[in-house]
Amino acid sequence: MKFSENLRFNPYLLRIVTVVAIAFSLTSCSSKSADCTKLIGMISEGQTLVVNLSPKLDATATKQLSQELNMISQEIETLTIKDKPLQTFQKNSIQQFRDLSNTLKPISEALTTAEKVSVSPEGKQQLLQAQKTIEEAGGKAKQIASKNEALFKELVNYCPQKTP
Fold first, then answer.
1. How far is 112 from 103, CA to CA, in rounded Å?
2. Which PROSITE patterns match (predicted)?
3. 20 or 151, which is more confident
4. What is the mean pLDDT of the chain?
5. Helix (H), strand (E), coil (C) string for 19-79
6. Is 12 part of any domain?
7. Which of 4, 46, 110, 137 is at a distance of 20 to 30 A from 27, taking alpha carbons?
């Protein structure tokens, strides 16, 4: 007698397995979808800050933007994300917002110096140094912002699309 001859089709077992499989599938999808929504929302908030405050380019606005981006990186870090690729997006976005925040600090300091510089040969030298710092840090900030934008596009493409 073969092993398969003793097995009988059990429709109740099949239903239980099907229900469990569907429930697990829905839970994992909704979890990924919820994690996507949270992560996309926070990254979008950071990008909105950059877009809204960048044109002001004064010391106070730049310092404020640096602080707010640092706070956003901390908020993103507190998210509990189960999906491995989403964890990678999370880690990369945290780092990018921190890098951008840290890059804005010397810009803020240079702008503060430039606003307070005296009209003198020493003042002119300080102004030139501040300008150099702003240009260098500004270039880095632009690169980081571009990487952040590319990461955001990848994230949106990775996340499941909501159907109407």
1. 15
2. PROKAR_LIPOPROTEIN (PS51257)
3. 151
4. 79
5. HHHHHHHHHHHHHHHHHHHHHHHHHHHHHHHHHHHHHHCCHHHHHHHHHHHHHHHHHHHHC
6. no
7. 46
- Going from the C-alpha of 49 to that of each of 3, 24, 45, 52, the distances in angstroms are 66, 38, 6, 5
Written as one letter, the residue type at 101 is S
Structure tokens, 62: 């730049």
Distance CA 43, CA 161 (A): 17
CA nearest to 127, candidates 138, 135, 115:
115
Which tens digits make up the pLDDT trace of 30-46? 588 889 999 999 998 88
On whether residue 13 sits in a domain, the answer given is no
- 26 located within any domain: no
**pTM of the shown model:** 0.74
Place of tokens 């933007």: 65
> Which domain, by its residues, includes 107?
34-158
Nearest-5° Cα angle at 142, 41 to 134:
125
Contact assessment for residue 78 and residue 63, using Cβ atoms and an 8 Å cutoff: no
